[in-house]
Amino acid sequence: MEEESCIDGLKCYAENTYSDELMSIMLTEDNRQHYSVTIDTMSLFESNVTFAHILFEYPERALKISDQAFHQAALSICKAHKRISNMIE
Q1: Sign for the pseudo-dihedral over CA of 13, 15, 20, 23
Q2: What element of type H or E holds 77?
Q3: Gene3D superfamilies in the record, alphabetically (predicted)?
Q4: Are 25 and 35 in contact (CB under 8 A)?
Q5: How far is residue 9's CA from residue 87's CA, in Å, rounded to a whole number?
Q6: Residue 51 buriedness (CB in 10 A; 0-12 / 13-18 / 19+)
Q7: Is-contact 83 31, C-beta < 8 A?
Q8: CB-based contact 33:27 (threshold 8 Å)
Q9: Between the CA of residue 13 and those of 40, 85, 87, what are the distances in Å?
Q10: How many Cβ atoms are within 10 Å of 9's Cβ, its own excluded?
Q11: For residues 82 and 11, which has the higher predicted lDDT (pLDDT)?
Q12: What distance lies between CA 35 and its chain's CA centroid?
């Protein structure tokens, strides 16, 4: 349950803080390329203390959680963008 809560919290954080960056990554031509997002860890820790504890105690688990959360955020942003602009999938 703690993990689901962290994923939800990080998803909201990603949507609110990095939506423009995630959208620009999704709009790139080469979908086989991997792109990074540089995260301000201080603001992340302030927004999600539980995740900060997980990161320090279980870094591998924290990476999986953040990967899932940012992936879900990207999908959510993409769906919202498609609804707003009537984009074709």
Answers
A1: positive
A2: helix 59-85
A3: mini-chromosome maintenance (MCM) complex, chain A, domain 1
A4: yes
A5: 28
A6: buried
A7: no
A8: no
A9: 11, 23, 25
A10: 18
A11: 11
A12: 13
